């Protein structure tokens, strides 16, 4: 579990994070969402220790990360895996060398044990046989999967994922989301995902934190977000007509009603009549 | 203010390199890799430059020594001392600032921009120690070796040019090489070699490690690293000459 208490961070005279407090539970996908410049990335970088917060506490399973020495932080970091937006694979190394790197650095296992572990995680991300390929030979989705394999190879307790779907097609995005969710539940990892992708929000959002101008504006899950009356959140999530229709459809299915500010005619489009359920259904 | 701030950040980077390695074997592997990169990657250019600088020294010295009272073996003496004192350490270091410096700045800059350095940090690795220190140590081991090779090849190139063009005979050149040889000059050359090796590796590492932005900024950082390193090498060259070469 990761507890964040009154986290503040600024650069020069501009405050980016304003007293953010949140608890993130193991076995859940904790999604941080918000528009560009809302402080999501700074928040995540503070959590992993790439930025030192101005004040507040970050507590990893009872251990206060913000008050630790550099060496103590190193110990916590060995329990952290991270998938970067651009995957951050070592370009001069093969897939196998990328994944074995943390094992070589931090374990005294035999070569065979390490190779077994590499093949195990490659199988887990459905990339068996890609051992000898270089990052330049991989597609965007494959690079993300190698990034996930490297992040979980040391069995981390905490997994941080930055924009997992950027640059990916919707189908591959769905596969990556599903993989993150499965790994989180299987290994009981506390997963924190920084995303803009609304499909991810709806599919894997066990716990969603909406950031607005450096503050936690809303918190809930992917069921509650549909019924939220928070105007800023609704404007951000349901920014397009299509998504507003989808929201109303979901509300209609679950409550028999649609949003107060909309009426049934809003759902009736000449070019998409099938969106409206027929009375016989 | 900017200059002192840069110096301060550079010194902090140097200080940050010294921590206990997470895994000695991995650090040793990285050190050996860097030795190979710096040494083998620069060997051919050093060989070519050295032979030609020696050859040109012989021809130009002979051109200027027109007085028949000056013995011909003086040419070899002049070539020897010029190559050992200045050409091998300084000229080769200026070239290495371009070859090795831009490579170090580009490599680290690319790692920074593509978040590979962040990935290492999050794994719990001291990236200054793992990425920068092996490069500096490798340069301190390999660059003085390259400079010794450059000095020998420079003198050999001078002899080759002299004998082939009929400026000086082989025997006369050998006689000049041993006449009035001052071993201290070799010490001076090695002092320069170690100083320049440190500058050639640490300054580009600083610029590469602290790149912010994208591909354009990596290019700018590489260029700036080479320019600053060349200026620093020339400044150090004068400084070392001023303090180490004094006729008491």
TrEMBL record, chain A:
Residues 261-272 have a biased composition (Basic and acidic residues). It comes from the Bacteria. Signal peptide: none annotated. Residues 2-238 form the ABC transporter domain. GO terms for molecular function: ATP binding; ATP hydrolysis activity. Residues 261-281 are annotated as: Disordered. The keyword Disulfide bond does not apply. InterPro entries: AAA+_ATPase, ABC_transporter-like_ATP-bd, ABC_transporter-like_CS, P-loop_NTPase. SUPFAM superfamilies: P-loop containing nucleoside triphosphate hydrolases. Keywords: ATP-binding, Nucleotide-binding, Transport. The keyword Nucleotide-binding applies. This is Phospholipid/cholesterol/gamma-HCH transport system ATP-binding protein. It comes from Flavisolibacter ginsengisoli DSM 18119.
TrEMBL record, chain B:
PANTHER family: ABC TRANSPORTER PERMEASE PROTEIN-RELATED, PROTEIN TRIGALACTOSYLDIACYLGLYCEROL 1, CHLOROPLASTIC. It holds the Pfam family MlaE. Keywords: Membrane, Transmembrane, Transmembrane helix. The lineage of its organism: Bacteria, Pseudomonadati, Bacteroidota, Chitinophagia, Chitinophagales. GO terms for molecular function: phospholipid transporter activity. This is Phospholipid/cholesterol/gamma-HCH transport system permease protein. The keyword Lyase does not apply. InterPro entries: Permease_MalE. The chain crosses the membrane at residues 41-63, 83-105, 136-156, 177-205, 225-245. GO terms for cellular component: ATP-binding cassette (ABC) transporter complex.
